[in-house]
Please model this.
Amino acid sequence: MLIDRLVATALAGSLMLLAGGAGAQTVGPSGETATPSAEVRLSDADLAAVKEKGYKAALLWHTSSDFTNAVTSGAKDEFARAGIQIVATTDAGFDAARQRSDIETALAAKPNVILSLPLDPVTSAEAFRQALTDGTKLVFLSNLPKGYKHGTDYAAIVTDDLFQMGKQAADALAKALDGKGKVGYIFHDASYYVTNQRDQAFKTTIEKDYPGIKIVAEQGISDPARAEELASAMLVQHPDLDGIYVTWAEPADGVLSALRAGGNTKTKIVTLDLAEPVALDMVKGGNVTALVADKAYELGRAMAAVGVKALLGQETPAFVVAPALTVTKQNVAQGWKDSLNRDAPQSVLDAAK
Model:
């Protein structure tokens, strides 16, 4: 699921994080305060006002994955409540030129609202221009076409609460360590807005909120395939680590392999995003203590709700964030559904019994 967020790198340097420990928050491109997605709701009056209008929507995604499937599901369910027909759902395969073609094709169906994650800020700015001319309402996931203005060109950007994801990871690891110990910090060593903000939020929270926990080892990683090697080196230098934070689930699996190779059952791992290998270790009582995920289904629901409000001519928040959730052995079945709107892998469900 991480790669779905990595494509939003054009927001690096524009979306910001307000530091300050427990009071920190993710803010928008021009410093907008984040509106929680739970506050973006359609009233009975809203639904009644759009149901008989014959409105149509298009979902123009950057790729197909568990993440985008969950976002799509949330959007479809909300649009269905409003009586809005989905006339196009596309997958650009991370190809900006293909996405532009998808936009042109979708516009032939005359959608009244489009939900999309723009792959390239420059290409998409031009590609969506016809939609603006047609009066189509635009709601974006995580990324923004270059030069677009809220209220004029788009209804909202909807994304994860990135600070909360990192903070909850810190809170979960601190809980597993009873608030004291030595930890390693394996961060994403590349300029990617999503991972950079989540990683920094973890570090900030540990340093400000948990004085009994010390980050004694830091290691950047750009290639998940090197995770086991880098973790092994970290453990040689710091064999007494009580915990390790890993930037996302794929490299966390490599860190887990390093711990297993050394017969280490003591060091706890916390990581971000849902994946079967690390979830399986977690429910079996292994090194993984918690996984922190976003609510992808809620992202889609909120995007659709913003689109409906825009169609009704209502004022819409510029920047909306969906909440993070901490998934543990105790809530893994419900956590998977809350995040991805589908059941956890059968192997995980069986092991959790």
In short: The mean pLDDT is 92. The chain has two domains: 2-161+296-322, 162-295+327-352.
